[in-house]
Write a structure and sequence with these properties.
single chain; mainly alpha
Length: 184
Amino acid sequence: MTLRDDLAGLLAGAGIHDVDIDDALADEHVRTSAYRRVVSVAASSPSRAGDRAMVATILRDPHELGSRTAVVALVDAIALKVTGPAGFRQWSAGLLPEIDRLQDEGCRMFVHRRIHDWLFHLSLQDGHVPSADECAKVTNWMQRLVAEESTAPAVLALLAESGSTRKIRNIAKNRAANPVWGGG
């Protein structure tokens, strides 16, 4: 299949008819925006059955940075929808063979790290209290998100002590000390 066929199929499958295919083929920014719209439609569906095929199609795009951006948007959207780490782990495992086809190691590792970050986040929502080592293995982005959102005193105390940046440690410390602001 050609890039034109892939893009046209994704857009049609998502019911998106206002994207000029020629413009999208000529400009990777327009194409990335179209992929993100396709991903948004897919993420809003209750069915996850077509996600792997959609990801495989998006990742055939030669502009890996743009296609990675769309796949990460899907990962983020699904992580926010699932009710626990087990479902997300199973879903993301189905995508890994497609993600591992990315030629650019940086793009491939970015998606892997994002999945790992969300598994960490979901395990915290499920009641898991991480170790300092577990916290150290997630990105600064995830540590900050947890520091800003967690209501678990033990998690906030851990991040206040061993967060990877001063900002993360301060957010966690302030939220733990001020439960009215969501920390306790």
